[in-house]
Amino acid sequence: MMMMEWKWLRLIRMAVMLLVLEGCRWCTTDACLEHERIALLHLKPFFNYGNQLQSWVEVKGSDCCKWKRVECNTTTRRLIKLSLNSTRWFDNMGYDMDNGNLNAWYLNTSMFLPFEELKSLYLSGNAIGGDLENEGFGKLSSTLSNLEILDLSFNYLNDSILLSLSELSSLRYLDLSYNQFEGSSHPRGFQLLSRLNNLETLDLSWNSLKNSILFHMRNLSSLKTLRLRRNQLKGRLDHIQGLNNLTNLKYLDLSDNSIESISNQDGTQWRLTNLEELDLSNNLFRNNTISFPQGLSSLKYNNSLQGSLDTKGLRNLTNLKKLDLRWNQIESFQSFKDGGSKLELTHLEELNLDANLFNTSVFASLNKLSNLKSLSIKLQ
Ligand SMILES: *[C@@H]1O[C@H](CO)[C@@H](O)[C@H](O)[C@H]1NC(C)=O
Ligand SMILES: *[C@@H]1O[C@H](CO)[C@@H](O)[C@H](O)[C@H]1NC(C)=O
Ligand SMILES: *[C@@H]1O[C@H](CO)[C@@H](O)[C@H](O)[C@H]1NC(C)=O
Ligand SMILES: *[C@@H]1O[C@H](CO)[C@@H](O)[C@H](O)[C@H]1NC(C)=O
Ligand SMILES: *[C@@H]1O[C@H](CO)[C@@H](O)[C@H](O)[C@H]1NC(C)=O
Ligand SMILES: *[C@@H]1O[C@H](CO)[C@@H](O)[C@H](O)[C@H]1NC(C)=O
Ligand SMILES: *[C@@H]1O[C@H](CO)[C@@H](O)[C@H](O)[C@H]1NC(C)=O
Ligand SMILES: *[C@@H]1O[C@H](CO)[C@@H](O)[C@H](O)[C@H]1NC(C)=O
Ligand SMILES: *[C@@H]1O[C@H](CO)[C@@H](O)[C@H](O)[C@H]1NC(C)=O
Ligand SMILES: *[C@@H]1O[C@H](CO)[C@@H](O)[C@H](O)[C@H]1NC(C)=O
């Protein structure tokens, strides 16, 4: 009798467990939230170029966490990443600085408001333009308080959106490269960005920014990476002072501009003691008149130095580990001040002098590099 009862009890227990398991599948606790699914469907018609969002189906109960370009938090089942990059027709071939707005469109950012836990939003390459000053991204700040990564590269945005961007105070990474920022049309524009006091990476490459941009960004002291490649920085950079305040900066890319010299005439020392890599490639430096930051551990020039390189400016780089001088037209090293010709970089481990105009006399300049591990001097 006892045996029979136990058997029944076990059977009942199994049935209950099965019900619980099946039941969970039915009540779909592991699907995405209905209102987020509907919000995604509202976005779909704007970003479905080439039917890239075909997995976004209008079927009730469909788990949008499994849709392409969507990522959810596995616990809360709420959206944390949305990758809508290159999902709109973008006539790259017909891109023209003067008529660039040809196929720009107005993005209604309210459509992103339901995604309250969103951390990363990729919107690059979508021809987004329009005057977003009043609407813009600012309104997202009220609900998207976790937004850390915003990629708006390859669009038609200009200075008029800076005010609204400056309200997204949770941002750590902001990519504004390949847009139409000028830095001068809105006097307070880039200064406003300094409200983003969590911002660590700012990419402004391939815009039309002038020298004054460095000054306007002087309060962005949380920045660790700043990219200003291919803008309109030119001549003498006087605004060292602005740069100098970015004391957390680790990586600075100023390549592909027309910088001739970097001056700090008033004698202020560089305070960028955390700067590890400075890329000054493809500028118009002639004689090396720059005063480099002391702690720098990696320096790169390409296609911007010629003739005899003044070693005076390099002498202070006692932490320099990596020096990349490829693709210049350097003939020799020389200190114009004291006539010396030695590179005295005691920490240097990697030196690349490929594609310059050296002859064998250069080796005499290199014999003080006591820690050198790799040296390359290929002729072009
Ligand atoms: C998912 O959400 C939980 C609860 O809010 C949180 O503790 C966790 O860090 C989140 N995970 C990710 C990857 O965001
Ligand atoms: C979109 O962006 C994500 C994140 O950067 C990247 O992994 C993915 O390759 C990009 N997709 C396209 C089509 O560009
Ligand atoms: C923007 O999107 C929101 C939410 O989808 C909608 O309520 C609003 O009408 C839209 N505004 C415009 C101007 O289309
Ligand atoms: C920015 O773009 C908008 C819309 O394309 C345009 O109306 C406005 O004049 C532009 N502003 C500047 C400063 O170029
Ligand atoms: C930048 O910082 C200076 C000094 O702390 C302050 O006077 C100025 O108002 C700040 N500018 C902006 C735009 O935040
Ligand atoms: C920027 O640096 C200057 C001196 O170079 C200093 O007077 C100013 O207060 C600094 N601003 C900030 C916001 O740190
Ligand atoms: C570089 O400096 C040397 C010595 O000061 C000078 O003779 C030479 O003309 C300068 N070259 C250029 C391109 O400025
Ligand atoms: C090198 O550092 C010394 C002491 O800090 C300083 O006086 C000198 O001006 C620096 N030289 C250059 C070329 O930066
Ligand atoms: C250096 O610049 C030249 C000319 O712009 C370019 O062709 C080359 O790829 C660059 N090399 C490196 C290593 O950056
Ligand atoms: C090698 O280069 C140095 C510096 O440019 C020059 O003074 C010297 O004449 C050159 N020697 C030969 C053999 O070309």
UniProtKB/TrEMBL annotation:
It is a single-pass type I membrane protein. Coiled coil: none annotated. Keywords: Cell membrane, Glycoprotein, Leucine-rich repeat, Membrane, Receptor, Repeat, Signal, Transmembrane, Transmembrane helix. It is found in: Cell membrane. The keyword Membrane applies. Its main location: membrane. InterPro entries: Leu-rich_rpt (IPR001611), Leu-rich_rpt_4 (IPR025875), Leu-rich_rpt_typical-subtyp (IPR003591), LRR_dom_sf (IPR032675), LRR_N_plant-typ (IPR013210), RLP23-like (IPR046956). Residues 34-73 form the Leucine-rich repeat-containing N-terminal plant-type domain. Residues 1-26 form the signal peptide. SUPFAM superfamilies: RNI-like (SSF52047). It holds the Pfam family LRR_6. GO terms for cellular component: plasma membrane. Belongs to the RLP family. This is Leucine-rich repeat-containing N-terminal plant-type domain-containing protein. It comes from Gossypium barbadense.
